Amino acid sequence: xxxxxxxxxxxxxxxxxxxxxxxxxxxxxxxxxxxxxxxxxxxxxxxxxxxxxxxxxxxxxxxxxxxxxxxxxxxxxxxxxxxxxxxxxxxxxxxxxxxxxxxxxxxxxxxxxxxxxxxxxxxxxxxxxxxxxxxxxxxxxxxxxxxxxxxxxxxxxxxxxxxxxxxxxxxxxxxxxxxxxxxxxxxxxxxxxxxxxxxxxxxxxxxxxxxxxxxxxxxxxxxxxxxxxxxxxxxxxxxxxxxxxxxxxxxxxxxxxxxxxxxxxxxxxxxxxxxxxxxxxxxxxxxxxxxxxxxxxxxxxxxxxxxxxxxxxxxxxxxxxxxxxxxxxxxxxxxxxxxxxxxxxxxxxxxxxxxxxxxxxxxxxxxxxxxxxxxxxxxxxxxxxxxxxxxxxxxxxxxxxxxxxxxxxxxxxxx
Length: 415
Hints:
It is built from three helices and 21 strands. It has helices spanning 7-40, 107-167, 173-232, and strands at residues 42-44, 50-52, 54-70, 73-77, 82-87, 94-95, 100-104, 234-235, 240-245, 252-253, 258-263, 268-275, 287-292, 295-304, 312-319, 332-349, 358-366, 369-380, 384-389, 396-398, 410-414. The strands form four sheets. Strands 3-12-15-14-13-16 form a six-stranded antiparallel barrel. Helix 2 (107-167) packs antiparallel against helix 3 (173-232). The longest helix has 61 residues, at 107-167.
């Protein structure tokens, strides 16, 4: 006959099972931890990159970010406020010199231009009319002066005759004085007339020159209007690629609005940016290495923006091979600007471990293990880092990322 097992016995058996299960789990966790610990304390030689300390030259550089942009880019803006009537090209098209791009509504400015042409002709007629009038007036005055000279000569003869008659008793002294007085008055009037003639001549010449100057100013205004009219007929100024065009037919475009951008996509340059704290290391003419993937292109700094904007200084790089096949507009690049040369210095390969001059703890190869060592590093370029102390030529140092072993002072190596 079966007996019912007491609850106390069942509880004890259940507790024993839980204890055994917990022990198994704990043992498993400890085993896994030990395995992980053993694995972490050793490293495969194939997974790390080693660099041998040597002595050589370092062209000290500062790193910056760069962007590939067209070497030539021209923005076309509207010279007048108008409306887009028609668009002839689309972005990405190749265009030649004089290729029509956009048609604007030019009826108003064309009407103004024709009015100005009529006004120019009217001003020219007025100027010619004034020149003829001046010549006529001055000619009449000059002729009158000649007539007056002849009358004065006649009066001089009369004075001489009266003096002769008075000397032989056939005349009177009063008559002589009257003749002399008339003669002298005529001479003064003639002198006054001559001065007035010269003044009138100068005034007429000045007025004519003022009108000529006004005509010349108007011609320049007309030429500027013609230039604006020509520019308003939006055409390509050179052979290039159309990278942008406003294709919103019917919309009004204010004066100065960008309607198209032309770019030369066969030649490129680099627009670089660097923190303004390194501004003293960037100057025109500095040698530059631009890295695009595994490719390295050389060039020089062609210009530097003198002012910092949001803590950043901008500069441009002119490439030696500005038509390289890897260059694409908008491509991001790493830029290294050389600013000094150090000879006969200890150096190791640059890598992700380096973030600037200072003290580092690097793993150095010692037999079949890696040992952490404190090292003082100095300046760098994109290839090498200067070793100030802590290493000697011939030492082999890990230059790959070892951040996962930051708490380890020694690692075993395995092949």
